[in-house]
Amino acid sequence: xASKPPAILARLLSGNEEWAxxxxxxxxxxxxxxEAEGQWPKILWIGCSDSRVPESVIxxxxxxxxxxxxxxxxxAHIDDDSFLSVLYYAVKHVGVEHVIVVGHTHCGGAEAxxxxxxxxxxTGSSVPPPVIxxxxxxxxxxxxxxxxxxxxxxxxxxxxxxxxxxxxLVEENVRTQVHLVSQTETILEAWDQPPQARHVFVHGWVYxxxxxxxxxxxISRGTRETxxxxxxx
Length: 233
Fold this sequence. Notes:
Elements: H1 7-27, H2 31-35, E1 43-48, H3 55-58, E2 66-71, H4 81-94, E3 98-104, H5 108-123, H6 140-156, H7 162-182, H8 185-191, E4 201-208, E5 213-216
Parallel strand pairs: 1-2, 1-3, 3-4
Antiparallel strand pairs: 4-5
Helix pairs in contact: 5-6, 6-7
């Protein structure tokens, strides 16, 4: 006889039943049958894994509206096979037209990266230490957040109030990831298509956790651009 799931898992399963029943009632009996036929979202969301920033929930989106990938601190590492595969599939096969990099306030990854940068500044080092100093430098989490720590160095050198510095870092991180996405082979090939072809745009947003609102940083790109300059330094 199968054992009952723990209460926290049972709540998820019962919540799913209620969600499916409510959506079927609101969208029509054939909604899920239509979903099974395929997906054609126009948006790729590159977000943070943070549990407080679920893209479909905070945008009131329906299943099938948003193709998404999420990782710690919404990074677009150019050597990350997972990110590059998602981007390729979204643009080349799903038909995505808008790629949105979304950061958020109170980001643990940004806080860790900034703390490492502060340690470097305070000790006169030009290289930030691993974000988790109890792990070796080549630990997965340390390698993942190393670029963010380096990005935080000029901000840490400004000696701002921590809250202001972190908000600046979150925004600069989004700008940097938009730039990196814009330099991928997938996006450059899309921008090289003739004008009449489906176009792809890359955007940068920030979600304010304390207000529940998204902000457009107005850094959208839709053509090849070779010049990139950090906003704050």
